[in-house]
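Complex 390.
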Amino acid sequence: MRVQVCIIGGGPSGLLLSQLLHLKGVETVVLERQSREYVLGRIRAGVLEHGFADLMREARCGERMDREGEIHHGFFIAHDGVLDRVDLAKHSGGNSVVVYGQTEVTRDLYAGRDRMGGKVVHNAEDVAPHDVNSDSPFVTYRAGDDIVRIDCDYVVGADGFHGVSRKSIPKDVLKEYERLYPFGWLGVLSRTRPVSPELIYCKNERGFALCSLRSQALSRYYIQVPLTDRVEDWPDDKFWAELKRRLPETTARDLITGPSIEKSIAPLRSFVAEPMRYGRLFLAGDAAHIVPPTGARGLNSAASDIYYLYHALIAHYERRDDSGLDAYSQKALARVWKAQRFSWWLTMLLHRFPDHSPYENRLQATELEYLFSSDSALDSLAENYVGLPF
Ligand code: FAD
Ligand code: DHB
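Predicted structure with flavin-adenine dinucleotide bound:
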């Protein structure tokens, strides 16, 4: 088989790029290791920047998002017994975010690919890029007993943090930057009315908590837990009791609990791999960078990679202009590092660090005090949360 662009990974990054390129007449194939049901069973992001929402519309997959997604003009930070609101609209020149789950984004992108007859191969095993540093790269995968070969002009590695693409770049070319945090987030999805119409990020001595939502009938809650904890350690009753302890009293009183319909633990990590291009292989999304979820930047950073890569590939195919492809890594990384900084900062601000000294704890408290006493500090938080321009 021959296509112009072979995309490894059928998560939001790979599907969005495939859909956008298809609409411009560029032929792609998406190779996904898992089944569609498995991909759609993963509960992850919930907060989208408008830049991301615009790309979904450009991909002709934004209709349901526009109908069912909620526009949020602010969120709360609970600390020291108070509930302070961050007015995003006021502090970012009228901007906002869209609350719409990654699962639904992915479902809409799959529907778009199906509608247009896009090629998405599921259960593709042993996917491997070859000769990416030559003019004739190809990708192989195994389907049962058969090895399938796909020749292409370019390979896009959109296969997430544990994918094969980044690992195929020689070690002496790739530089990796990493920071691990000594805790994870335990997330619970429940078919209950959210405790607050807007998100609440809670800093508490027992650890961080987040009240988020997918709709006014579907809640998503998180609590900071030690890395050693397992999902089995947290039956629903124990989760709700611990969440209540970390919320302000009035919020805890209003919390409606119910059976969890999904429960998972995600470790927190900051990670960047440079460069994001090696020959004819381009990395995008979690394949190249990870942020702790605190700032809701992960999926949005993936979308900004796709924005740059899509425009660069279109310039190549429509005008034989390769300047976008040549600048891709540098351009994408400039925005990626800003998302890294913001996510690291918000994580440090709101979590309990078991190894912090009393001095560091006082600095953390002072940072929060400063935030809510300074319009410039709130402007900076808001402009990063709604998303820096592409
Ligand atoms: P992925 O979603 O990881 O997709 C990669 C795909 O590649 C997967 O389907 C995988 O099965 C496939 N794959 C892997 N290896 C191979 C292989 N060898 N061959 C073929 N296919 C392969 N981000 C936000 O912006 N806002 C939020 O509110 C937010 N909240 C989050 C909350 C949590 C708890 C977590 C864990 C993450 C959150 N994120 C958030 C981050 C966001 O979910 C990710 O950044 C996003 O999924 C990245 O998309 P991706 O397509 O690049 O990678
Ligand atoms: C969600 C996740 C986040 O990391 C965040 O900052 C906000 C919301 C969520 O899953 O709803």
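The pocket of 3,4-dihydroxybenzoic acid (ligand 2) is lined by residues 45-47, 199, 212, 220, 293-294, 296 (CB under 6 Å).
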